[in-house]
Write a structure and sequence with these properties.
It is a single chain. The protein has helices at 20-41, 50-57, 61-77, 88-98, 101-114, 161-164, 168-178, 182-192; strands at 119-126, 129-136, 147-154. The protein is mainly α. The chain folds into 2 domains: 20-77, Helix Hairpins (Orthogonal Bundle); 88-192, Iron/manganese superoxide dismutase, C-terminal domain (minor pseudopilin epsh fold, 3-Layer(bab) Sandwich), CATH 3.55.40.20. The chain has a 3-stranded antiparallel beta sheet with strand order 2-1-3, sandwiched between helices. The longest helix is centred in the N-terminal third of the chain and has 22 residues, at 20-41. It is globular. The chain binds fe (ii) ion (FE2). Residues 26, 30, 72, 154, 156, 158-159 line the site of fe (ii) ion.
């Protein structure tokens, strides 16, 4: 049985960029529904980590609910009210790939705005190089060998409709300016180079 992880901050902590109302619906209803559905689909006593469930699932309900459980938990950790800055090594990689943080923001927002329908926009590293990519619906980076996610933002309308209505671009711009957890991105960037462990969903009970 997988547990719904608590938010790593108070429901009000991300205001005004993301409201407490949105976090209550998004975490307590949407994310909880994916975790509950997944638990109902897995055989009794299945102790595999969520990452293994996702990689072994193949297309269908198990994959969709498992990947959405993982993506949302990573998304919560990819945000913080603390406004950290990227570390030196990640900053150098951002400069190399995008010119500067503003260049990365332009690419990240454009990728998210251009993504048709629901999904996720990611900052990821592959072969030491940073890239911005998007995935459809529940799809994630775990099924892409050699790709390590550094940050993610949810493009499903439930992530922003209460606060921004249909203005996905406004949401993404405000999100990028205020909420990325660059400390998580630093750790993931180091882990992709073999320094430390990559982020993982809490083990099943
Ligand atoms: Fe979501």
């Amino acid at each position: 049985m997988f547990k719904l992880p608590d938010l790593p901050y108070a429901y009000e902590a991300l205001e005004p960029t993301v409201s407490a109302d949105t976090l209550h619906f998004h975490h307590d209803k949407h994310h909880a529904a994916y975790v509950n559905a997944l638990n109902g689909l897995l055989p009794e006593g299945d102790k595999r980590p969520l990452e293994a469930v996702i990689r072994e699932a193949g297309p269908g309900k198990v994959f969709n609910n498992a990947a959405q459980a993982w993506n949302h938990a990573f998304f919560w950790d990819a945000m913080t009210p603390d406004k950290p800055a990227p570390g030196a090594e990640l900053s150098a990689a951002i400069a190399e790939a995008f010119g500067d943080l503003a260049g990365l923001k332009d690419k990240f927002v454009a990728e998210g705005v251009g993504h048709f329908g629901s999904g996720w926009v990611w900052l990821a590293v592959e072969g030491g190089a940073l890239k911005v990519l998007s995935t459809h619906d529940a799809d994630d980076t775990l099924t892409k060998p050699g790709v390590t996610p550094l940050l993610v933002c949810d493009l499903w309308e439930h992530a922003y409709y209460l606060d921004y209505q249909n203005n996905r671009k406004g949401f993404l711009e405000a999100w990028f300016d205020a909420l990325p957890n660059w400390s998580l991105a630093d750790r993931q960037f180091a882990a992709a180079k073999g320094q430390g462990a990559v982020w993982a969903y809490p083990e099943p009970a």
